[in-house]
Amino acid sequence: MSELKNRIDFVYIFDVQDGNPNGDPDAGNLPRVDAETGMGLVTDVCLKRKVRNYIQVAKEGQPGYGILVRSKEISGEEVFINREIRKMYAEDLGIDLKIKDKAPTDKVASGRDAMCKRFYDVRTFGAVLSTGPNAGQVRGPIQMTFARSVDPIVSEEHALTVCAARDETKSYDSQVGIQGRKSTVPYGLYVCHGFVSANLAKQTGFSEEDLQLFFEALKNMFDVDRSAARGLMSARRLIVFKHNSLLGAAPANQLFDLVHVKKRDEKNVPRSFSDYEVTIDKEKMPKGVELIEEI
């Protein structure tokens, strides 16, 4: 594995057509929205979930690429983090902990390192492992912001009808017809900003190969996460700013300001990615920063 020696900042642009990219459970699972501006939102947690799901499928069974925070719908099993920590202590460090046992204080650091080696998402995004048997806390080298739509979104509500009854003890007519509703965004283009700390990567063992796998996940994760509710979601641009040092050569916001996303025709209502134009002010690129267009 190659050590990560450069600070990385990136801009990730994706879109949704006729789907709900991230429902809000506090609002009847409507698409998340900034109440003041009407801009659509997708949380960092939602995006990380998709990255985890992709890695779990792409690297299934390979040592060092386990996923600690696994969803039952992908793994087909119920996951308990404390049980995973105890399993690590038993298999990797030879320490047999019962359900209510705490790891010896002088072994917590070793447990933390072992969890980073075992689980890709722990060494990438970090984790709180101090509950139960205790393997400390990990601050991950990759952080991501909420994704925000370029323009205000419109949430459309659709009635759902059922044509087949389920329960023979109830009347047929009471079980068919309109039985539910779903909400979708006709079209939305979202922009997310991300940061990769080479300093924190050293602490967790996050490598250059891990970084390339992360970028691979951003490019392809929507293709292993299809559902009727999410409509058509696609990765459109992945713009990477690679610094020539551990600390970096320019502030992240200065680099992000070089990326411009705007409608080609302000009078049109956007319904596809072709309705937008993405440009980068390459002439204003600071010294010591390399531009890499992954998508």
From TrEMBL:
One of its GO terms (biological process) is maintenance of CRISPR repeat elements. It holds the Pfam family Cas_Cas7. It comes from the Bacteria. This is Type I-C CRISPR-associated protein Cas7/Csd2. The lineage of its organism: Bacteria, Pseudomonadati, Bacteroidota, Bacteroidia, Bacteroidales.
